[in-house]
Amino acid sequence: MNRRSVLLLFGIACAAQAQTLKILCSNGVRAAVEKLNIQQAIGAPVDFQFGTSTSLKAAIDRGDAFDVAILTTDLIEQLAKAGKLKGDTKVSLSRAGIGVGVRKGAKHPDIHSPEAIKQTLLNAKSIAYAKEGASRPFLNQMYEKLGITAAIDPKVTLEAGSTQAAAHVAAGQSDMILTLISEIVPVEGIELVGPLPKEFQNYVSFAGSVSPQSKNVEAGGKLLKFLAGQTKAFEAIGMERVK
Q1: Torsional class of 83: left (φ above 0), alpha (ψ -120 to 50), beta (otherwise)
Q2: Beta partners for 180?
Q3: Which one, of 53, 48, 81, 83, lies nearest residue 67 by Cα?
Q4: Average pLDDT over residues 59-71
Q5: How far is CA 154 from the centre of its chain?
Q6: Domain extents for the chain?
Q7: 26: exposed, middle or buried (C-beta count within 10 Å: 0-12, 13-18, 19+)?
Q8: SS3 105
Q9: What is the SS3 assignment for 131?
């Protein structure tokens, strides 16, 4: 092999190594992954697309190109069964409970018991959260158990994502946000009141998996292995290990 051929092969290898890894990532873990130096850790550039798990699943269903998906565990498993993710690459990451957030400096309402949160919700003028957020079905269940669905529905402002919902509260346009604690703790301008009462608490777990069409499966696997070891980053935004 002549020198020119060696250089050509070396160039091809370097280009492959530097191929950007496209990652579809749920808002539920966004604040954790954004603080990590992932590119340095895995030796490849990364391109994150954030959104609700539901909206990102829709992107996968319509055939959008990606290398790795980090979504709720339920959706990761659904997509793997449908052949749209490599099931053998699945890695569990962390989980988050549901909490209540208010504008920074605002009085914290009482949410310590079912009766307390019932009155707090009934007294609220406006409540914001993501239209397709992973916590929304559990919130609807709570309203039904409390018998206040009809009273709460007119108060709810549905946003495209938790980021927009949090901004609504930070601007004083809504009294509170109900969403995953990991989508409240890291947001400037709002603060966590606390988790929902244990009677209504539910946890949403997150996992990642690699696309069957990915041309960079090795880097995708390195990414997921790296994230699985970042316990402190997840704990910093109110998340915990999947039990």
Answers
A1: left
A2: 98
A3: 48
A4: 97
A5: 26
A6: 3-95+205-235, 96-195
A7: buried
A8: coil
A9: coil
User: pLDDT exceeding 70 applies to what percent of the chain?
Assistant: 92
Identify the CA nearest to 157 among candidates 140, 176, 138: 176
Name the average pLDDT for the chain: 92
Maximum pairwise Cα distance, the chain: 80
The one-letter amino acid at 206: F
Radius of gyration for the alpha carbons in the chain, expressed in angstroms and rounded:
21
* Domains 3-95+205-235 and 96-195 in one fold: yes
CA distance 111 to 134: 21
How far, in whole angstroms, is CA 203 from its chain's centroid?
12
Total residues belonging to the chain = 243
Please state the rounded mean pLDDT for residues 81-92: 97
Which regions of the chain does DSSP assign to beta strands (E)? 21-26, 46-51, 68-72, 86-103, 127-130, 156-159, 176-180, 190-195, 203-210
Residue 190, beta-bridge partner list: 103
Distance separating alpha carbons of residues 153 and 151, to the nearest angstrom? 6
CATH of domain 3-95+205-235: 3.40.190.10
Structure tokens at 210: 């690699």
So what's the pLDDT on residue 241?
Answer: 86
- The CA–CA distances, whole Å, from 82 to 54, 75, 118, 220 equal 16, 11, 40, 20
CATH number of 96-195: 3.40.190.10
Which amino acid makes up residue 147? G
Q: Which two tokens stand for residue 178?
A: 């109900």
DSSP structural state of residue 122? H
Cβ count within 10 A of residue 198? 9
